[in-house]
Amino acid sequence: MDSDLAEAVSTLKGVFEQRKIPVKFGQADAAVVERLRKTLKVPARYRSFLLAADPLDVETVTPVERLRFFPADKIIDEQLGYSVGTEETPANAAWRKTWILVARSALLGDPYFLDIAKLDAEGDCPVFTVMTGTDSLRPELCASSLQQFLRILATSMEVASGFGEAVLDDDDERTFRETLAPRIKTIDSAALRAGHWT
Fold this sequence. Notes:
Helix content: 40-55%
CATH architecture: 3-Layer(aba) Sandwich
């Protein structure tokens, strides 16, 4: 794992610890990660993330979203009903083969995915989400890279710690998003412009 990605993972782990939210990272089996490379074309940077910090039980917690990562050994199964189908669960015709699910909203069920059609020279790619249950799929940019995605998640959890554990009303939610926006801008201005987090 390169130093930027390692720092982003370390920051995310630190926020879980600071907020006393149970979390479990591990190290993915190399054979499982190789299978992900061959079958789904999971890019190099995400593979290095799985090998060093496989999200075995990782769910971020903020007032507006709870994002649950898939561990390496579940990623292939999670593609079912999206890029992969069976008789019982057909593939989604609108889902692109270059979209790889890596997490899901624990609140709304919306998928978070890598778009490997937009790979960069370092083997990284942007992370998107899409609202399910609609007639058409309109991807929203969450982060321009995996490293920026992890940093945004860590930052949003840091900001959330100032809001306590109570259910937020609309004003509190707006205040949370307004507090988060300038911090996201310093991490990934394209993600801020896309508007998913704010």
